[in-house]
């Protein structure tokens, strides 16, 4: 193939590819919980477009194809919420998720002054938990998503880079 994956800020034109990629990537999460109404699967394209316009959104590209994405935004408590991390199933396990996280964390620190990052994942999502722990996140609690899935809340202080998966 010879192409390398690049990470960059998402543009308006990426919204539809992000939407389709998110739908593909979160199928395995839905299967894990037996719940195909999880938030990433029922989010509308218009909602994704609004997030791309308003939030800190990064994509991983292989040529012109969006093969990964992550979103982040500042919260009222000075932390930054990171979510919807996804990497195309054929490219998982190659460090793309860690690169996307680092890009979002760096931008949120520089642009929003974030000193703490917070994210969540389903309690059965061992692959996700492994990645988040590898890059320095620690479990700080649990919550229940609007879709009924039990979530583990993880946090990490800004500037903490444990590994690059």
Description:
The chain is α+β, with helices and mostly antiparallel strands. It has a single domain, classed as 3-Layer(aba) Sandwich (Aminopeptidase). The protein has a seven-stranded mixed beta sheet with strand order 1-2-3-4-5-7-6, sandwiched between helices. Helix 1 packs across helix 4. The longest helix is centred in the middle third of the chain and has 17 residues. 33% of the residues are buried.
Radius of gyration computed on alpha carbons: 15 Å
Number of helices: 6
Mean pLDDT, to the nearest integer, reads: 93
The shape, in one word, is globular
What share of the residues does DSSP label as strand, in percent? 25-35%
Q: Given the helix and strand composition, which structural class is it?
A: alpha+beta
Numbering strands along the chain, what is their spatial order in the largest sheet? 1-2-3-4-5-7-6
How many DSSP E strands?
Answer: 7
**Kindly, what is the distance between the CA atoms of the first and last residues, rounded to a whole number of angstroms?**
22 Å
Indicate the CATH architecture: 3-Layer(aba) Sandwich
Number of domains: 1
Task: Please mark out the parts with pLDDT under 50 across 5 or more consecutive residues, or reply none.
Answer: none
What top-tier CATH class fits best? Answer: Alpha Beta
The percent range for helix content is: 25-40%
> Mind summarizing the main beta sheet?
7 strands, mixed
- As for the CATH topology, it is Aminopeptidase
* Topology order in helix (H) and strand (E) letters: EHHHHEEEHEHEE
CATH homology group:
Gcn5-related N-acetyltransferase (GNAT)
């Amino acid at each position: 193939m010879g192409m390398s994956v690049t990470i960059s800020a998402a543009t308006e034109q990426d919204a539809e590819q992000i939407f389709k990629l998110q739908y593909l990537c979160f199928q395995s999460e839905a299967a894990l919980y037996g719940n195909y109404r999880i938030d990433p699967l029922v989010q509308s394209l218009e909602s994704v477009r609004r997030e791309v316009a308003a939030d800190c959104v990064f994509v991983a590209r292989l040529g012109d194809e969006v093969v990964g994405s992550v979103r982040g935004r500042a919260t009222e408590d000075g932390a930054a919420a990171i979510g919807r991390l996804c990497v195309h199933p054929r490219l998982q396990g190659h460090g793309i998720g860690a690169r996307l996280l680092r890009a979002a964390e760096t931008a949120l620190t520089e642009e929003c002054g974030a000193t703490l990052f917070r994210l969540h994942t389903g309690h059965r999502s061992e692959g996700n938990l492994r990645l988040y722990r590898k890059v320095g996140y620690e479990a700080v609690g649990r919550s229940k998503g609007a879709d009924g899935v039990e979530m583990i809340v993880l946090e990490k202080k800004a500037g903490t880079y444990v590994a690059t998966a």
